[in-house]
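Progress narrative, Year 2. Work on GH92 family glycosyl hydrolase from Undibacterium cyanobacteriorum advanced from sequence curation to structure prediction during this period.
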Amino acid sequence: MPIFPRASAALVSSISSVLLCLALPQVSMAVEAAEGAKLSSKSSSKPSAAVNVFIGTGGDGHTFPGATRPFGMVQLSPDTQVRHFKQSYPWAAGYRYEDDSILGFSHTHFSGTGHSDLGDVLLMPYSGETKWEPGYPERAFSGYRSRFSHKYEQAEPGYYAVKLLDHDIQVELTASERVGLHRYRYAAGEEAKILVDLRNSIYDYKSKNLWSSMRVRNGTLVTGMRETRGWAAGRQLYFAMQFSQPFIQRDIQNREEAVEYRGFAGPGSNGKDKVKIEGKALVASFDFGQAKDQTVMVKVAISAVSEEGAIANLQEMSGWDFNAERAKASAAWDEALSAINIEAKSEMRSMAYTALYHSMMGPSLFMDSDGRYRGPDNQIHQAQGFRFHSTFSLWDTYRALHPLLSLVQPRQRNADFVNSLVASQQYSPDGILPVWQFHGLETWCMIGYHAVPVIADLYMKGVGGFDAEAALDAMVKSAEYGPYGGLQHYMKYGYVPTDLEPEAASKTVEYAFDDWTIARMAEKMGKADIAKKFYARAQYYRNVFDPKTGFIRARKSNGEFRVPFDPAVSNFGSDYTEGSAWQYSWYMPHDNAGLISMLGGDAAAIAKIDQVFDAKVDEKIYAHMEDISGLIGHYAHGNEPSHHVAYLYNYFGAPWKTQARLQQIMDSQYHAGADGLAGNDDLGQMSAWFVFTSLGFYPVAPGSNEYVIGRPFVDKATLNLPNGKRFTIRADNLSKAAMYVGAVSLNGKALEQNFITHEQIMQGGELVFRMQTTPNKQWGNARTARPYTQTTYGVQ
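Result:
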């Protein structure tokens, strides 16, 4: 695989104008290119200049490099995958850095997921003969795709540019929240043409496209829609596409097999030659002839409601000043990223800001400018007093992403998330909170009811702006909905029986944590009966712990553990979700004292967790599981169940071991290259882990209002908090060798606790770490210094 150059984003920015000018084929474009170069030559003080958007676009990171706004509805990015490719997993985001050809630029993408979908409304500029199929990269000129070189590719937050080598066309992309803006520069003397492909650019349209339509409204405006049955069945997306100048000829075809091709040609520029075509495989070509200044621009607005809604959303981007829109996108990212001022060595600073950038991709806005959106019942609803968001990868993001957003996003944004979740529950055909939702629709992917800890964590932190009574009601209904995920058995037996439900061990322990967060919120609201009930359910994890082996194991409905048992076995549909007993036996983040007691005390717990990291593991035992990656022994950083494990030493009285393990993880699982993420970023969870860890603390148990202290990896960082206060973290004597914490102080006073509270952060102040080369085994080891846990220490 090509290795992405580990240049800092500032260096990339400083040379980008030169590369961009080299990519432009015509001298007449030099003025506009120079204007673009001014924008890309940002001061290094701007956080967006430190972002390297290509981190994670290779390997298993599954991120995309295209243009979007923070939490934007449009994610306009290149797609490089081979259409109809059966193994879609590597191209889950549409783009892979290893590829050398592009088939077009579509307007919706997932950032870092382990499942491929989206890629809506693909545009591809071209000249010469019209080719209706994308072709294959190993057969040059076989279709409309084009080769490209990273030498002529530039990207930064809110902007992407590339030269299409086979077509000799320079492409630039930027975006507002609901509108993607394209600027295409064609070679002199060449006809300017644009192909629009409504067949899904990431999935095989033959099995996933249910229907699509395209309507030519006049010479510059085209609208349409597509309905798919991919990850979310019956998903509808509408678009409005406006050209900067009228086309002189157009041809729209339905390429569906056994359907007669229907082509249309005509001037189409006076608004009288309107046409609408429908089918499962629509492709259109628009010919602009000799375009003015060899340039054509296109705006594409999307909507989940209607074509008229998409047309209205176009008004979000007035005029055709590409550089002005690019500047707005850049400013939006600088504002969002300035939530943390990071001082660190260039590569670490770039990695930290890139991680922060990736943590602001989702949940994404998903409503029209008038507040209408499509809900989980596939009906249209009106948001009242909030902005509806979707794309909730909750099994991943409740762990660190949402706790991070509580610190770096305005209270209103976080309230919008809760209101969106609660509104979804109210319109859900099943009456429960989202499990894994995108574009308003439920996918039922993964396990747990993890919207619950997202809401509880924000409530416990005092984030208002939502109806707590309605939220708690939605949480309880989700936790008591028997038909979902074996919950009826969980409530009956006190665990999920493996002979009645797959992934039983994982479901039991994850349900128990969710239940604890319900209890926490109910207790704070004065709902004693609800709190008592769910505190009791939070202890159900004990029912699947086997004291003989020291592992979480699945039990049958007769109470017996399933045999035979191998703690390293993992399979889809088995007892564990994307993991094994080695990874899941640490999942009781709300009650680590209970785990210590069951394992036999601190020393036994430390020895057991050491085995996780130090085991000599043949990676072949996990090779069949795509999501189990980033292995250090049995620890799998590329997947979420392991993310809190390194911090557990703090609960066992050995925070110095946490510090050493974090160094091991950071060194082996992240770097400033295209393959710099060890696993799927999962809508920002991998990146949120990095942000927290680089600052020096991590939310092991969302809902506890505590962050477990690890060790910082940046020299200094200042959180510009949503309440207007500042909280600074400083690492004195930080170096690669000085990986251990010698002492910690908070606002000038020694901090003996190995955790810090949310309230302490929100009050503002300064947290100072004194780093050293040898471990301080006395700091933070006292029982009174350890983080929150539900069980009293010493309980048998």
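The two ends are 53 Å apart (CA to CA). The first helix runs from residue 9 to 23.
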